[in-house]
Here is the input.
Amino acid sequence: MPRAPWLRFFACLLLGGVAVWVALAAWIMLAPLSVLGFDEVQVLAATALLERCDPVRVVVFGDSRPIFGIDPGSLDTSVVILAEGNASPVVDQYRLQQRLACARKPDLVILSYILPAFVRVNANGFWTNGAFTHGLGLDEQWAVMRAVAPGLFQPMQTDAAETYAELPFGLKTVLYRSYFPVFYGPSVLNAQQTGLRSRLESNERVRDLIMAGHGHLEGRMAGPGRRRHWMSGCRTAG
Here is the structure.
C-alpha cells in the first residue's frame, strides 16, 4: 500500500509526458509554419515546388546561394529553383529523381553547391532538410547514412554545432521522425517568445514569396544577419 502513491505519481508523470509529446507532434504536423524557422520554411517551400512538378525547361538544385542569386523572372526561359540551405548533392539526388519522375522533364538541370558539399555532407543541413522537416523519406535517410562514412557528416567551421551529435544516426533519425520533444521544443519556445501569430504570418509570407518567385527570394527578406552571412559566404567561396 505505501508504494501505491509513488506508482500513481510515476504513472501520471509518464502519461503527462506522452500527452505533451503527442500534442507537440500534432501541432507541428498541422501548423508547421507557426513553429519552424526561416531555414525550415525554405525547405517546405522547395518541397512544395518539387511536388508541384511545374513544366519548366531549367531546374536548379543547390544551397542557399541560388535561392537569393538566381531570379527566374529575369531570365528568358522557364526556371524553377529547388535549392535548400546547407544542401548537398548526395542528399539532393533523391529530390532530383523525384523531379525527373514528373511528366514534363527539364531540358537542363543545374547543380550549384559550394565545393566542400561535393566531398562531405553538412550535418546541420542533413538533419534540418531531411529529418527536422521530414523532407526526405525514412528509406532515403537510411540510404544516405549507409552510403556516407560517419566522418564525412560534419558542419562547416562557420556553422553552429550539430544538435546532439553524440547520438547514433539511427536513433537520431527515429527521434526526429517521431517528433521527439527534445529536438522540437526549442523551436516551439522560440516561436512563443516571438509570438505565434507573428511567426505564422512571417513564415507564410516567406513561403508564398518563394513559391511565387519559383524558388527565388530577395536577399532583403533574409534579414540583416542572414544577408551578411550569405554575402560573406559568397566572398569566401570566391
